[in-house]
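Thread: Newbie trying to understand structure tokens

Hi all, I'm a second-year student working on a class project, and my supervisor (Dr. K.) asked me to get a predicted structure for one chain before our next meeting. I've only ever worked with sequences, so writing a 3D structure as a token string is new to me. If someone could post the tokens and maybe explain what I'm looking at, I'd be very grateful. Here's the chain:
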Amino acid sequence: MDAKKFLISRGIPFEERDIRTNPDYQRILTEELDSRTTPTLVLADKIIVGFDQAEYELLADNSGTKRKKQAVRGRV
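---
Reply by user tm_fold:
Sure, no problem. This is what the structure looks like when written as tokens:
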């Protein structure tokens, strides 16, 4: 499984940025994120370089927990 398929399978919305079609995305990847690897996943202050399924699963689980807590808090 690759990063994109993982995110889709978990129903996690994402923005795909193709560095081959937009030079600004390449600059962001290399200069701002200090990465030369794709995929590079950015979620809030967490950056994952490359596809590490275990890290993606941990991130997905944590973000789901946060959404549930926010939803519960919103109902109170």
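A couple of things are worth pointing out once you decode it. The helical segments are 3-9, 23-32, 53-75. The beta strands are 40-43, 46-49. Feel free to ask follow-ups in this thread.
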